[in-house]
Amino acid sequence: MSAPERTAAVVIPARLGSRRFPRKILARETGKYLIQHIWERVVDCPGISNVVIATDSEEILEACAGFGAQARMTSAEHRSGTDRVAEVAENLSEELIVNVQGDEPYISHTDIGTLLGLFEVSEAEPGAAGATVMATLAAERTDPEGFNDPNIVKAVVSVDGRALYFSRSAVPQACAEESGDEVEWLQHIGVYAYTREFLLRFAALEPTALERREKLEQLRALDHGYTIRIGKARGQHLGIDTEEEYTRFVEEEKGRREDVPVSREP
Fold this sequence. Notes:
The strands form 2 sheets. The protein has a 7-stranded mixed beta sheet with strand order 3-2-1-4-8-5-9, with helices on both faces. A two-stranded antiparallel sheet has the order 6-7. 29% of the residues lie in helices and 20% in strands. It is built from 9 helices and 9 strands.
């Protein structure tokens, strides 16, 4: 007899402050808040029974109420979005928690399904070595510009799908014959899933030296010996960190609307 599917919730961390693009969560040049675009992408996702926006801002809380989203106030003292997600997860009953960043407007149902699939029950007992407690995504790329861009995180993955390392540097180093027009590499997509139990444990751990050096919190899990499973991202991903990236998103949204045929009454 197969084991029942685990219940899953999406939590979207939404902080009003942002170093490179202040107040981006409430940017509204498309006619919708940026956070609304993300919420609409996940609220009807198969396998997800609950969607909560976790914020530190009354202004965001009010905006979420305006488009019908469930939102909860969290501490303004959190070090990261993961800590904000963990605070909300303490009061959730779902077994799996998916952390969808508030600046990933093209997150797809397919990719969330891939994440959840990495938690399918194996022969390992829950909590034993080999049982998945944390998962994320990576996308295949070949462009040297992205490979050498420190703002884009690279993932190094084992043959059986385990994360070996994450870095802002160009890793693994390209050999001489790959240094021309194309180089095969994996872009890390900042969408995570965890068992609820592991998420609460992870958030209680202190940041490690590698995490502080690379400014990548997932390295904390690797540093402490936990396995991160990596799935292959298939949908389009456009993380928005700057005003320029948001402007590109607005233009793409306008193009999408123009491409939609207008229905007319017969």
